[in-house]
Amino acid sequence: MRAVARTTWCCVGGRGQAGSWTTPTTPWSGRRACWNSCDRHPFPRPSSWPLTPKGVLCDVPTLLLTRLPGKPPRPAATEIDGFCRQLAETIAQIHDLRDLADARLEPYRLYYDRAHASLVRWIPANAVWTEAIDTVREPPPTTVMTLIHRDYHPENTLWSGGRLTAVVDWTQASRGPAALDLAHMRWNLVADYGQPVADCFLAYYPGHHRSRRPRPPLLGPCQPV
């Protein structure tokens, strides 16, 4: 990491196992084009520069990203409302970039085999879990596809002085349903802060109350995709 022209840059690269969640969804060229196009939009994220797209210098494709101020969030009880509001408003800005997703990004992919989804051995096969598995095996509903982060949760955001300063870890950015980002954030909020905080986040997401398809109650805190 070094300072260049009063900007601190960090080197980011990595090698994912083929077919795993660590493998970037969108090829390097598409991700770079997407990143450049995002510079025209206001949501907080690092800027980038391609250090070695073909992995010549670092053995893996590598980006330089600006290091932004902030740390992972640890909101006090009195800050939860603003915490949820900023998380919801920021992901809504990202989801507004539908045209960008259509032109630049690959479709999102699942991290499991839908047709053979099953319970792990240590979960009891009761009626709730059986219904959940049946739901997971169903084809996803038809919906509008847009730019999604694909791993949007509190630990992939940076905060300073009660303000969200950056959304980081964009390796899985792809074209997909906005609900996927919302579900992923919600189950993380349930695990870390409880169901009321997850509900507060959703309440701040613009237009959530206009959803045309009711959400099954058992899927409220879960991410079936």
**Mean residue pLDDT:** 76
**Contiguous helical run count:** 6
What is the CATH topology assignment of the largest domain?
A: Aminoglycoside 3'-phosphotransferase, Chain: A, domain 2
* Total strands: 8
Give the fraction of residues assigned to helices.
25-40%
Give the H and E element order: EEHEEHHHEEEEHH
Detail the poorly predicted runs: 1-12, 16-22, 209-219, 221-225
Report the principal-axis shape. globular
Q: Major β-sheet, in short?
A: 4 strands, antiparallel
User: Termini, distance in Å?
Assistant: 36 Å
CATH architecture of the largest domain: Alpha-Beta Complex
CATH level 4 superfamily of the largest domain:
Aminoglycoside phosphotransferase (APH), C-terminal lobe
- Look at the helices and sheets and give the structural class: alpha+beta
From the alpha-carbon coordinates, what is the Rg to the nearest angstrom?
18 Å
Q: Please indicate the count of domains.
A: 2
Broad CATH class of the largest domain: Alpha Beta
Strand order of the largest sheet: 1-2-4-3
Instruction: Bin the strand percentage.
Output: 15-25%
